[in-house]
Amino acid sequence: VFTISISIGQGNTKPVLLAIGGSAPMVDDELENTQGGSLSLNQAKKENGLIVVFSCNSCPFVIGTPDFPGWEKQYNALYSQALKFNVGLVLVNSNEGKRLGADSFDEMKKRAEAQQYMMPYLLDKNNKMADLFSAKTTPHVYYFNKDMKLVYVGSIDNIGNNKRKKDIPYLSMAMQAQANGKKCKPNSTDPVGCSIKRVKKN
Description:
The chain is built from 6 helices and 11 strands.
């Protein structure tokens, strides 16, 4: 359990408690998809749920550096694993502050093609979805079950921790737990990455 802020109504923000078991917001809004057309979270959902990964084209935690592999390299494998469990997975780009540059829709399409993304890559205009999710970083993972209730939130794994003693694949573990009818342990971890580049709203 952790505290977040979500937007309610016309831009009013009030702190709420987003507990594991909370409902996914904005499930029927259709977002432009690099694969063509548009897609809502409910449309992307599979029988056993949906994983939403806030991502982008420009963050070194996503795309990698000489010293860090970047989580993007795991996206297709995670998507394949999710499909095996009949769970959907989408990437969402909320970097509105870079929409005229590295995170434009054209650049998103180029990135998806160059990296051979298998999953939908969606454009979150004016970082609306990121605000409703209170997503903080790229990447930031939200895993919802078949009822679109939150079962895991945080990092893909712990490789961003230089002091780790072993690799812990949090998201893969969460998918396996759900497939076995068990609760995710842990069900929340700290997201690691670049801050989402939001635009200020009047």
